[in-house]
Amino acid sequence: MRAIKLLLADDEPMAHKVLEAYCRKIDFVKVIGNCFDGVSCLNFLNRQEVDGILLDIQMPDLTGLELLDSLNGSSPKVILTTAHTEFAVQCFEYDQVIDYLHKPIRIDRFYKSVNRLKGCL
């Protein structure tokens, strides 16, 4: 099986470091890009195909939910990564959202989520 191509979208550099470290431990996952705001994420998706996005909800310019709205359901699968639990129910209104990870993210929960993504592809 080919590696799952993931885009990391989060405004916190430490979140990128943690997620990248987790991804390096999973042999079927490859991080192909890092975005620190919603607009750069949207631009990246217009240039390159990805299998999934690890998407933070609270980001500058475009929030994760605004980004999902702008993609009109044509985005890759999404795993939301956020410290804000109040968005959990709303996020599952988007067909492309397959999981919701609450920060701080534990490695066991991350692995389960990535396996869920693998099963959707």
- Structural class per helix/strand content? alpha/beta
Low-confidence stretches: none
Q: What is the strand tally?
A: 5
Task: Tell me what portion of residues adopts beta-strand conformation.
Answer: 15-25%
> What is the arithmetic mean of pLDDT?
92
Helix content: 25-40%
Task: Give me the Rg, rounded.
Answer: 13 Å
Strands ordered across the widest β-sheet: 2-1-3-4-5
Terminal CA distance reads 11 Å
Number of helices: 5
Oligomer: single chain
Major pleated sheet: 5 strands, parallel
Instruction: Indicate the overall shape.
Output: globular
Topology as a string of helices (H) and strands (E): EHEHEHEHEH
Give a verbal description of the structure.
The protein is α/β, with parallel strands linked by helices and 121 residues long. Helices cover 39% and strands 24% of the residues. The protein is built from five helices and five strands. Helix 4 links the parallel strand 4 and strand 5. The longest helix is centred in the C-terminal third of the chain and has 14 residues.
Give a quick rundown of the structure:
This protein is α/β, with parallel strands linked by helices and 121 residues long. Helices cover 39% and strands 24% of the residues. The longest helix has 14 residues, at 107-120.
